[in-house]
Amino acid sequence: MFKKLGLTLALILTIGFLAACQQEESKGEAQEELFHYTQTAEDIAEWTSMETPGGGEGSVELGDNVAVIQAAPDGWGGVQSAPVTIDLTKDPMLFVQVKENADGFKWGAKFVPTTPEIEDHAWGVYLIEDNNFKWNNYAVSELNVKLDQSFRDMYGDKVEGVIWIYATGSPEATVEVTSVKMLNQK
């Protein structure tokens, strides 16, 4: 009698344990699918200097788990990602995690379409305005707000371009970036 009860209890515990493990595994997969674009500090350290109509060609190097972006000699500038396609029908959001940006300096993020329709867009469209946000927090931008209807009228719902992250305020300005991510809310 006790043997059967013990075996039944062991079987129930085993099934419960396996179910819990399977749920944890699916949570990890859901987290990976949440962000459709992820760049770590190591990835960002491979980005190239911003390609602008003039000036702002900053640099980047890998620091201690951060990409250290250095402004150009003219006091602002940074780096750009490889081309990325943004689908505005999916209500995307951009997350930039910044560890440090020294007081007195600022940083920002812009999007530059692959083929700018107007001159202003060759200088990038602000996704995150110049700020001093830091301490390994995320700055977040709703891209449908920043890339509004007039932008969509020019480029459509799916647009390819590059993301700029830059430091500003002095030739010595830097920003330490931990990660850049995008997710679709729809």
UniProtKB/TrEMBL annotation:
<protein>
    <recommendedName>
        <fullName>Lipoprotein</fullName>
    </recommendedName>
</protein>
<keyword id="KW-0732">Signal</keyword>
<feature type="signal peptide">
    <location>
        <begin position="1"/>
        <end position="19"/>
    </location>
</feature>
